Amino acid sequence: MASSSSSSSSSSSPPPPPRRSVFDAAYIRAEFAAAGISPHFIPLIWKYVLQNPRCGDLDAVPSLPAAAYALLRQKFQPTTSTLTTAAESKDRTTTKLLIRLKNGESVEAVIMRYDTRLGKYDGKPRPGGVRSTLCVSSQVGCKMGCRFCATGTMGFKSNLSSGEIVEQLVHASRYSQIRNVVFMGMGEPLNNYTALVEAIQVLIGSPFQLSPKRITVSTVGIIHSINKFNNDLPNINLAVSLHAPDQDIRCHIMPAARAFPLVKLMNALQSYQNESKQTIFIEYIMLDGVNDQEQHAHQLGKLLETFKAVVNLIPFNPIGSSNNFKTSSEHNVKKFQKILRGIYNIRTTIRQQMGQDIAGACGQLVVSLPDERSAGGATLLSDIEDIRI
């Protein structure tokens, strides 16, 4: 009986591998090439799925060769992630999307609608109108462990594939026409570098056609990836989560900073800027009594005086009863801004917060903590591309 059972189990064929997302660009290109199918058909498939986000199969994609339909049926599906819920803020400026991945984990993406006419530049109303920015996640959880960020409490769970990154835009397109994309959701984008590069290359090509100038990648400062960023992603905006003007404070609030000494980070950023000629966006979360004093503003000003940079001061959002930080006073934030602007001539903005009533504000993103419903959110930014120098 034992040998019969063993023979039976060994003769059964293994299950077919799971079908991949059509937006996993490297994989679908390789499969098309192996089958002798022109890669020019791939953007047509992406366009169909983008325009029909609820499509169940790919047989309805028009004008493909027969071999392509057979390959798509066997190895691909329109999307591998599913949109679970969409929560709308009371003022309808923010929509938070909870997206379930094929591995059972979830991430969140946040749509922010921002009317540029409500802001002022040089004392005058700014031109434009309503624009939508999508904040996307690059990982489930995060290894960086920043003490002021809810995502850090999750630890790291998994990287997203390039297709899962792109699919966040596909899901969001059901709710708004997305103009800008910021990689400021869950995870450290430069720790998922290959998928990040591949996803962005899809976003700036057909059919998405996003301008590179309207895509921003935020990092805590992964030096070896910054060193190759401009070569792999020219004209993409780089934002650095600096959050402190010296190494000791950075290490206190951002444990991962120990691996990326501030002097080496600033040297890497200087080399990047010399090569790319790009403005660097500096993100700086304002923590009461920790990094928001006048001496910190002067330290930051001196640190950045050789850079073409925009500093974005971010009001801190409490992330639960266990948090040890407090929000800086409005007085301290404005005084900090005044020093950077007035003494060091550094363009400095104060981030407008959006979506706080749906836990969609800066640093609040966390999924599946014990004993909590998905409390979600994402690191938000009011159209960072609209504050380019």
UniProtKB/TrEMBL annotation:
InterPro entries xrefs: Aldolase_TIM (IPR013785), Methyltransferase_A (IPR040072), RNA_MTrfase_RlmN (IPR027492), rRNA_lsu_MTrfase_RlmN/Cfr (IPR004383), rSAM (IPR007197), rSAM_sf (IPR058240)
Protein location: Cytoplasm
Cofactors that this protein relies on: [4Fe-4S] cluster
Pfam families: Radical_SAM
Protein keywords: 4Fe-4S, Cytoplasm, Iron, Iron-sulfur, Metal-binding, Methyltransferase, rRNA processing, S-adenosyl-L-methionine, Transferase
One of the GO biological process terms: tRNA methylation
Source domain of life: Eukaryota
SUPFAM superfamilies: Radical SAM enzymes
Domain Radical SAM core: 128-357
Gene Ontology CC annotations of this record: cytoplasm
One GO MF term: RNA methyltransferase activity
PANTHER family attached to this UniProt entry: 23S RRNA METHYLTRANSFERASE (PTHR30544), RADICAL SAM SUPERFAMILY PROTEIN (PTHR30544:SF8)
Name this polypeptide is given: Radical SAM core domain-containing protein
Organism: Oryza glaberrima
Lineage: Eukaryota, Viridiplantae, Streptophyta, Embryophyta, Tracheophyta
